[in-house]
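Subject: TolC family protein structure
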Amino acid sequence: MNLTLKKLNMKKVKYLLFSSLFLILYVTKTANAQEQLDEYLALAVKNNPAVKSAYAQFEAALQKSPQVTGLPDPTLTVSAFGRMIETRLGTQEARFSFMQMFPWFGTNKAKSEVANLIAEASFQNYLEVRKQVIFDVTSAYVELYALTEIIKLKEEDLKILNAYKELAISRFESGKAPMVNAVKVDIQKDAALAEIEWLKEELEPIQTKFNLLTAREVQSAINVADTLFIEDQNPLLENEMELLENHPSIKALKQKEASYGYQEQVAKKEGFPNIGLGLDYSIISKRPVDDLERNGQDAIMPMVSLSLPVYRKKYRASAKEAQLMEESLIHQQESQMNSLVNEYQSALYELNKAKKQVALYDRQIKSAAQANKLLVSGFSNDLTDFDEVLQMNQDVLMYKTQKIEAIKNALIAKANLEYLLSKSENNENEY
């Protein structure tokens, strides 16, 4: 009795140790795979030309505010030649006129708001480009993983076919099966070799795309993870509508909409006069007359000027243009939101569908593998036709390939959901 209990306890200990070791390996593999991908994403975010271009456009937009809020250059007029004016105090030798124009009150502030909002919209465009590049890199990485794994499956299948050929020849030599079975294996081997070659050729453009996205040399080697896993929990599915509204493409349109609200104010304020303040200074020479009070005294005269915005049509048209653009951007937001919701629903469907497919293929692989063993055993004992063995082997290979494709689809759908719903808004240090 005690011996039996000890054996049971030992089995429990071994099971727990094995389970713990498997969990550690699983977590380690998952972490390593994510670390590899994160390194490539960091490279892309830092060096991708599209990202760098978008950020340069944002920095350029920041330079707009000082331009639109600066005062116009002052004017200086000098008159010192020709027949000058004779005054009571003397002859005018030279005249200097200085004038500085100022826009109507609040005009520059409204212009500054327009420029700042456009710059904020440009920053949101930059964030969207980053997110798109992150999605593209992730998708290319997942495609490389899927192709690499399928090639491995095909190569492993070649070994299985070689074993089947030896079995077929052995059965032929013992007079229990025709030689045509070995020929059938050769046909499948040729097809498998051709598929492997095609798949390797298919890898090349994806590798090129991946290296270009990460701004590396086209022929650079890529470290693809041995295993990629699908998380049980769907990413960021709480408050999805709120998260979609915070998508950079939506926020950029909101900033542009607000900028046209201020642009309308600018148009109205530009319909008011500009105010000019200046100074007129004249150099007067002395008259050859005694006892003339303030003889030769220079003349100083402050000046005020006003522009006369009498041509009102252009100001009304500018304000109307701003109103219509604001309305257009409201409709653009609605259209873009509809597109994001539709894309979100599609990505969520693809993710859930792929998860169910992976579970289905796991069951089918297990059952097909058992059936395959029974068929091979039956062929060895003259109970099964060799065609059934080959067909079942192809079925096992098909289920394994479809499982990898389903994993690929799930990971791409997950990446798309993260692109649509990412909480890391305005976070430049995400990678």
